[in-house]
Amino acid sequence: MHFDIGVVIDSSDSIGLKNFKVIKKNLKAMVDLIDVSPTETRIGIIEFGRDAKMITTFAHSQSKGMLIWSANDNLCCVQAFIVLKF
Q1: How confident is the prediction for the chain on average, in pLDDT?
Q2: Which of 41, 64, 78, 82 is most deeply packed, by most CB within 10 A?
Q3: For the packed helices 64-74 and 17-33, what is the interaxial angle rounded to 10 degrees?
Q4: Nearest to residue 48, comparing CAs of 16, 23, 76, 80?
């Protein structure tokens, strides 16, 4: 069965760095449990803090590795006006 899952992640400073790391860890755990592929389940990720940012879309050629890489490389937490990349 095919599913599209949209994930919206708050990366504003109200979340805090510690909680943001927990969010990323849980996102990875969720992706690990799902059969991610263009023909099965696709996941779109939007991050918002001061502005919204598309991390992945349903149109991307998807795999678990690509989603985890995108989340690790592109999600960042805005804290005290400093952008922290993980």
Answers
A1: 76
A2: 78
A3: 170
A4: 76
What does DSSP say about strands 3-10 and 41-48: parallel, antiparallel, or unpaired? parallel
pTM value is: 0.72
**Structural domains of the chain in order of their starting residue, each with its CATH number:** 3-85 (3.40.50.410)
Q: Are 79 and 17 in contact (CB under 8 A)?
A: yes
Mean per-residue pLDDT, 54-58: 82
Band (11; pLDDT cuts 50, 70, 90): confident
Residue at token pair 């095919």: 2
Q: CA-CA distance, 54 to 34, in Å (whole number)?
A: 21
pLDDT of amino acid 86:
38
Do the Cβ atoms of 11 and 48 come closer than 8 Å?
A: yes
